Amino acid sequence: MGSAKKSSAASAKDRRDRIEEMRRAERARARRGRIAVISVSTVVVAALIGVGAWAVTKSKDDAGKDDAKAAGASGRFSYDKEGVGTWSGKLGRTHVTKKVAYPMNPPVGGDHNPVWMNCNGDVYDKAIPNENAVHALEHGSVWVTYNDKAADADVKALTAKVKQTPYSLMSPVQDQKDPVMLSAWGHQRTVKSASDPAVAKFFATYVQGKQTPEPGAACTGGLSK
């Protein structure tokens, strides 16, 4: 009789041990499942973050391209009785490192390179980047431009005038519509020759004139060639 009780107790203990072992195995499987789910979720979240970051960056880049193309694109010149054109559209002033598609040539404003073209009476014998020249206009300079149809005597005389005038610069622009043109921020005109009285008047009006977005800003320490 005692032997039967002992056998029964042993059997019960064995059953409890097996049940506990099964529970431990089940808990272990559950833990492994949770770890697997967490690992997969982490990978998915990381992937989504990466895609989101790429999308934001691409959006910013695309916006920058759009801004660069749209700088001052909506507008036109309205000319007064003396022949000075004033740009009617809003001229952007964002610093960009890309090329800008300006709607006028030479440009009279718009988004531009962070570095200005030196304009302390600087004369350049080769074409200069529009984006740097526009920054010089923002500082209140007058930009004298000419093409190969300009008379040598006019180029020489204008060179001398620019060299004597702080906040001015000069360079060739071969594809401009007239032989000699004068530009300031938001303003532009053609002159017939270096001796045209309009030259002196344009300089007097627009060198550090009231159109200047950043009066007194530097015309040295920028790009020199």
What does this structure look like?
- There is one protein chain.
- The chain has 225 residues and is an alpha/beta fold.
- The protein folds into 2 domains: 70 residues; 130 residues, Glutaredoxin (3-Layer(aba) Sandwich), CATH 3.40.30.
- Helices cover 44% and strands 13% of the residues.
- It has a 7-stranded mixed sheet.
- Helix 3 links the parallel strand 4 and strand 5.
- About 12% of the residues have low confidence.
What is the topological layout?
Blueprint: H1 2-70, E1 77-79, E2 85-87, E3 120-123, H2 130-138, E4 142-146, H3 152-163, E5 168-172, E6 180-184, E7 187-190, H4 197-206
Kindly state the mean pLDDT as a whole number?
82
Low-confidence stretches: 43-70
What is the overall silhouette?
elongated
Task: Specify the CATH architecture of the largest domain.
Answer: 3-Layer(aba) Sandwich
Give the total of beta strands.
7
Task: Please report the distance between the alpha carbons of the first and last residues.
Answer: 113 Å
Region (Disordered): 1-25
Biased composition (Basic and acidic residues): 12-25
Biased composition (Low complexity): 1-11
Transmembrane segments: 33-56
